[in-house]
Amino acid sequence: MRVVSLIDNQAGPGGLACEFGLSVHVDTGRVRVLFDFGASGAFADNAVALGIDLAAVDLAVLSHQHFDHGGGLGRFLELNDRAPVYLRDRPVEPRFFRAFGLLTRPIGLDRAVVEAHPDRIRRVAGDTEVAPGVWLLTAIGSDHPRPRGNRRLFVERDGRLERDPFDHELAMVVRDPAGLTVLTGCSHGGVLNMVDAARARFPDEPVCAVFGGFHLIGLPQLGTMAASRREVAAIGRAILDRVDGPVHTGHCTGAKGYAALATVMGDRLRPFPSGTTVDL
Questions:
Q1: What are the pLDDT digits (tens) for 75-131?
Q2: Per-domain residue ranges for the chain?
Q3: Which helix (H) or strand (E) holds 210?
Q4: What is the DSSP-derived secondary structure letter of residue 113?
Q5: Beta carbons of 190 and 218 less than 8 angstroms apart
Q6: Assessment of whether the complete model's pTM goes beyond 0.90
Q7: Among 165, 169, 222, 272, which residue is least crowded by beta carbons within 10 Å?
Q8: Spatial CB neighbours of 49, under 8 Å, sequence gap ≥ 6
Q9: What is the end-to-end Cα distance of the chain in Å, rounded?
Q10: Which helix or strand (DSSP H or E) is residue 245 part of?
Q11: C-beta separation of 108 from 67 below 8 A
């Protein structure tokens, strides 16, 4: 299996584009999957530079309804005229980032893009195998705390802003003979809860790798961390207890969150900038 970071906050080798967003291409050997679409069409430009044909993608997955993961959806639908796009079965609602009671900005998915392609959109309401060995998990528990940064994220319902419950988020798990590979998107539900969901769904299979953001960032504009170093270190130790192989993270984990994780995870923790290619 090959996993490629098409776009991330950090630029990778070869001068590829970066942005506050995430898009990952996964080739399982049986099926080609696009997991998230970045904040713009830049992921597609990087795919060309990396020799990845987006028209050959067999299916796509949207981890949750935020612009930094779904902003490039329209570009993908232009480039690929056949692959279904899977997302969790929740309405596409206005979503916002709010800070200090003064700043409110929209961060949601473009509903018009979704509504313009009803033949391409597939909604999942429970744990679902969408291709051989590719599972989308919605049964994500709450045994571990969710990221504190969620407190700044809202959804508009009935004309009022309320804290986003992230009932629109899912995780993707790829099963192969080596074990489970978990892709988390932003981990608004908590990376430990997502990994535990995979372990509960497939209790006899080891988690051999994790890819995605862990939402440890506080204010993205300032690069702050939304948890203490001790709390983040505890998350790192708990990940090591659950995952047998490498953990590739970037995007909303943030530079400070990554550094705090690295103090306990060592070389098991690896960056995932644009263009990174990982063979498992």
A1: 999 999 999 999 999 999 999 999 877 778 999 999 999 999 999 999 999 999 999
A2: 2-279
A3: strand 207-212
A4: H
A5: no
A6: yes
A7: 222
A8: 14, 16, 275
A9: 5
A10: none
A11: yes
